[in-house]
Amino acid sequence: xxxxxxFEVNRRKLMAGSAALATLNLPSGxxxxxxxxxxxxxxxxxxxxGHLQRLQLDTRVTLLDALREHLxxxxxxxxxxxxxxxxxxxxxxxxxxxxxxxLAVMHDSDEITTIEGLGRPGAxxxxxAAFIEYxxxxxxxxxxxxxxxAVALVDEVKRGVPSHxxxxxxxxxxxxxxxLRERMSGNICRCGAYxxxxxxxxxxxxxxx
Amino acid sequence: MKPFSYEQAASPAAAAAAVASRPGAKFIAGxxxxxxxxxxxIETPTHLVDVRRLDLNRIEDTSDGGLRxxxxxxxxxxxxxxxxxxxxxxxxxxxxxxxTGQLRNKAxxxxxxxxxxxxxxxxxxxxxxxxxRPGSGCSAIGGVSRSLAVIGTxxxxxxxxxxxxxxxxxxxxATVETVRPDGTTRAIPIGDFHLLPGESPxxxxxxxxxxxxxxxxxxxxxxxTHHYHKVRDRASYxxxxxxxxxxxxxxxxxRVAFGSVAPRPWRIEAAEALLPxxxxxxxxxxxxxxxxxxxxxxxxxxxxxxxxLVVAEGRA
Lengths: 209, 316
Ligand SMILES: Cc1cc2nc3c(=O)[nH]c(=O)nc-3n(C[C@H](O)[C@H](O)[C@H](O)COP(=O)(O)OP(=O)(O)OC[C@H]3O[C@@H](n4cnc5c(N)ncnc54)[C@H](O)[C@@H]3O)c2cc1C
Ligand code: SF4
Hints:
Chain A: Keywords: 2Fe-2S, Iron, Iron-sulfur, Metal-binding, Oxidoreductase. Chain A: GO terms for molecular function: 2 iron, 2 sulfur cluster binding; metal ion binding; oxidoreductase activity, acting on the aldehyde or oxo group of donors. Chain A: Residues 42-118 form the 2Fe-2S ferredoxin-type domain. Chain A: This is 2Fe-2S ferredoxin-type domain-containing protein. The complex is a heterodimer of chains A (209) and B (316). Chain A is an alpha+beta fold. Helix content of chain A is 40%, strand content 13%. Chain A has helices spanning 3-7, 11-22, 28-35, 63-70, 115-118, 126-133, 143-158, 177-183, 194-208; strands spanning 41-48, 51-58, 89-92, 95-98, 111-113. Chain A has a five-stranded mixed sheet, sandwiched between helices. The longest helix of chain A has 16 residues, at 143-158. The longest helix of chain B is centred in the last third of the chain and has 17 residues, at 299-315. The radius of gyration of chain B is 19 Å and the shape is globular. Chain B has 316 residues and is an alpha+beta fold. Chain B has a five-stranded antiparallel sheet. Chain B has a three-stranded parallel sheet with strand order 1-3-2, with helices on one face. A three-stranded antiparallel sheet of chain B has the order 9-10-11, with helices on both faces. Helices cover 26% and strands 18% of the residues of chain B. The chains are: A alpha+beta (209), B alpha+beta (316). The A-B interface holds A 1-4, 7-8, 36, 38-40, 42, 58-60, 62, 81-83, 86, 89, 95-98, 101-103, 105-106, 149, 152-153, 156, 159-164, 166, 169-170, 181-183, 185-186 and B 1, 3-8, 10, 18, 28, 30-32, 35-36, 39, 47-48, 50, 52, 76, 79-80, 82, 85-86, 89, 92-93, 96-97, 99-103, 105-106, 236-237. The complex binds flavin-adenine dinucleotide and iron/sulfur cluster.
């Protein structure tokens, strides 16, 4: 079955949508994509932070842009947009991934959790609370990615996922400081808050493992 | 990115047929390499066939005591599998030496094997590059070449294969299983899977258009101690300058492949046979005929030192 045909919308609908979008104050890349009349579009249905969402998107929209530009969940940050910095880390079905290197359409029927879904003011996730307690950030730009990554890595240790710092591959996993730093190496902090990040993650991991 | 249409494949054969029937179509698996390149417009597919929901995500024992790894098994799942950790440790070690937790969660076995090169000029779209624009020339020859290959190169391309996992699969004599658009299957030895650049550096593997990798199989475990040592510019999260994958036996024999020194994982069986005589002998034979640039000639002595370290680790 050629699913693209089912997803194609007619030109008039597309132009109406584009005109509506053009009046919004969107970043130029997004606007350019929305205005590209020839670009194929798809309908994506996924659960974001517990809410079912249905979006009609240009196939090129990444999960990151769907979250930020279409659902206005701006907690997830765009840093490098190439998988290098980790600022866009979210959980897809509980697994941490870089939202910038994934297409929204590849997540049809997935459950996505962003920093907004982990906890809220007054009902913080223990990892969010620990980041505040340990002052584990300065400018805060990398923080949502750091926290999502940290939450997922505790689960990875529980599941026996090894890291480059793991000694005996078959022994039960522990989370030493060296292990923790290696496992967090996909989240860059330009302010250099690493020591406090490591303290915050250790505290929560100690309670959860 | 250039616009593209998208479909999810219903079966491996349908996926192969879908890519073969549309010029400009490509498979997408984890997307961690393809989307990166699409954002730079180095890759410009007009149609994507998403294979991730195919039933190719299992790791199974084979009747001869080996292991069959589905093409869509993620790098994390493969590195974490109990049998891989116990019997094929070199694979776990090589995988976790690469990329990051987030990327390994998304990256697949087939996508990892098919990742493209990291030559700086391949990414510089306004400069000549025979891989990106066949016939345009090679900017790396006479340019910045520190990270590039020292052997197996041609006058048309000196890019190295930057992957880690493939080096481990090479010492294990893995086989890549595929299905072609006409429905026929074949098994390609890992040693033949990455092509040398020769006259046509843009052709990187022997797959026909639409040929889908379905699995990688490993023969029964080789025993011995398993090692993967990766030398890079920072301790974590960087591509290798030189890497060594090895399986070493108590009697001093073993298997050795070098990563990031050639357009394919570099294993020379006649060289590894010299292991009992020491790392210098192995490296001398493995790198006979090497044509390094002044910038990357250091990789050959570095390969020897890295192998010496691995051999010492094996004895410890
Ligand atoms: C920041 C960063 C750092 C990295 N560091 C490292 C590192 O240190 N070491 C390392 O080894 N790698 C590293 N990588 C590369 C990473 O390992 C690859 O991006 C990943 O393995 C690709 O897998 P994928 O499933 O995402 O492939 P995709 O991006 O989906 O696909 C890659 C290619 O394979 C093709 N393909 C996919 N599946 C199939 C199939 N079943 N049959 C036929 N063709 C197929 C696609 O068409 C595409 O051409 C890094 C990547 C990034 C972004
Ligand atoms: S070495 Fe290969 S990839 Fe690099 S510029 Fe030359 S042709 Fe392109």
